[in-house]
Specification:
The chain is α+β, with helices and mostly antiparallel strands. Strand 4 (79-86) and strand 5 (92-106) form a beta hairpin. It is built from 3 helices and 6 strands; from the N terminus they run αβββββααβ. The N and C termini lie far apart (58 Å). The protein has 2 domains: 1-41, no CATH class; 73-174, Tetrahydropterin Synthase, Chain A, CATH 3.30.479. Controls the rotational direction of flagella during chemotaxis.
């Protein structure tokens, strides 16, 4: 009986440590501490859709003690390319890959003002990369992670800036 109580306490302690670690990893130390002890409320995030933007860009502003961060989410037109695939019998074939993605960039970073005018070139770089892929390259979560990292690297290269922060993928369909 005593051994069972000790193991139950040990499992509970390990679970609490794992929960705390996950909380700190996801929110950061200050955010997790504020959540636990009831500190300051996190800075408000204001999301507004840019009314005058025909491209459907969304601007997100975040104000904090460190200063204002202005994030722009700009979607790309749908990209459809052929990719290589291997059938169950080993025959080489082609499949269609359809991608709907958006580029997230920080408006306050150097070079961010050029991203909108270089957007067609970024899309072209995306298409060049996507045409080189095989169906196996985009399988699973690891494939998706590599795909997003490669697209982000190309966006930063074409924009000649570190302003691009992330690639958001709305649809990724292989047919």
């Amino acid at each position: 009986m005593k051994k069972r109580v000790v193991s139950l306490v040990l499992v509970t302690v390990v679970g609490l440590v794992a929960l705390t670690g996950g909380l700190v990893a996801s929110m950061g130390f200050d955010g997790a501490l504020a959540l636990v002890i009831g500190g300051k409320d996190p800075a408000a995030i204001e999301v507004t859709k840019a009314a005058e933007s025909p491209t459907g860009d969304v601007e997100i502003t975040h104000s904090s003690d460190e200063g204002a961060v202005s994030i722009i989410v700009t979607p790309f037109k749908e990209i459809i390319v052929n990719i290589h695939a291997t059938t169950a019998t080993g025959r080489q074939t082609t499949r269609f890959l359809k991608l709907n993605a958006a580029l997230v960039y920080d408006e306050n970073m150097p070079g961010a003002s050029y991203i909108e005018e270089r957007k067609p070139f970024v899309r072209d770089a995306f298409q060049d990369y996507l045409r080189q892929l095989s169906e196996r390259d985009i399988q699973g979560s690891a494939g998706l992670t590599v795909l997003k990292a490669e697209l982000l690297r190309r966006a930063r290269s074409v924009a000649d800036s570190d302003a691009p922060r992330e690639i958001l993928i709305a649809d990724l369909i292989v047919q």
